[in-house]
Amino acid sequence: MSETNLYPGLNLGDGHREAHDQAETTVFGFWVFLMSDLIIFGILFASYASYLDPIGMAGGPGPQDLFDFKSVAIQTAFLLVGGAAYGGVSLAVKYDHGRGKVAAWLLLCAALGAGFLFFEAKDFITQASKGGTPQVSGWLSSYWTLVGLHGVHVLSGILWIFAMTAQIVTRGLDDVVKVRLSMLGVFWHFLDLIWVGIFPLVFLVPLS
Amino acid sequence: MTKPNTGELDPQDSAGSEIRSYAVGLTASLLLTVGAFAAAMSDLPLRWKIACICAAAILQIVVHMRNFLHLSFSGGQSREDLLLVLFSATLLVIMAGGTWYIMSDLSGRMHDTDAAMHEVQPR
What we know:
Strand content of chain B: under 5%
CATH superfamily of chain A: Cytochrome c oxidase, subunit III, four-helix bundle
CATH architecture of chain A: Up-down Bundle
Shape of chain B: flat
Distance between the termini of chain A: 42 Å
Order of helices and strands of chain B: HHHH
Order of helices and strands of chain A: HHHHHHH
CATH topology of chain A: Four Helix Bundle (Hemerythrin (Met), subunit A)
Number of strands of chain B: 0
Largest sheet of chain A: none
Oligomer: heterodimer
Shape of chain A: elongated
Helix content of chain B: over 70%
CATH class of chain A: Mainly Alpha
Radius of gyration of chain A: 19 Å
Number of domains of chain A: 1
Mean pLDDT of chain A: 89
Number of strands of chain A: 0
Mean pLDDT of chain B: 82
Structural class of chain B: mainly alpha
Strand content of chain A: under 5%
Largest interface: A-B, 59 and 60 residues
């Protein structure tokens, strides 16, 4: 069981032996990078929580004035379904469904990620027009940094998806592409994980 | 497509169970999200709301790590990955939790003007 459940995208087993072996070290290295990313996000969470009081808001607009339940729910739905859709990529690679299917699942992930970014950008613009720009208070600075950094990650994930789609078209599904796809999978699922921290702590707790 | 496919588990079988695992993960994840939103909009006392939201978040993180990122204690590389994640999480709890604790303590001591007034005025 553990042999066949290594990575999303590359729990390949005996049928893909060489790529499977290569994936172990490469993807582990990528995990180490992601953990440094996790530390950055965690520290930003801590500053957000520290500024979440009247002094941190410095007389500027607060969560009740700026946040919109419905939009947060829509963004969350886009991101969660988009994350799960990467399971389609992983399984299509593992069970040799052909590059057309892999590319189709990848583009579905990118589309859902883009939907998320659209609503997030819309929220940022609304908030800025209501006077909630980053320089107004410490709380707003930490909010824009934390949520903005996550948004930048999603954007780079989408660019990475396009790059991988191009590689699938030009080189086909060779071992190098398979290992890269499994790293992209870890990255994409990791962004979901960060959002699972963001939507309860950044949006739901201050609004309740 | 050129897969030799000898002496393995039936690929159809394991494909089915993996699809089920992703489906279970997605369902659990969506249910926990809806639960967190419902708790935030409910009429419960604030303390309970926050407890519900945090519990849902922790459960959802576990679901994502298990069903989507395939981390587990079952051995091999997924165990090493999980140990790396848990170690990083420990560092994070010390740094982020410590930051939050120190800052809120400091804030309580320096800005709690009401309490400061009461302490100073009786003298």
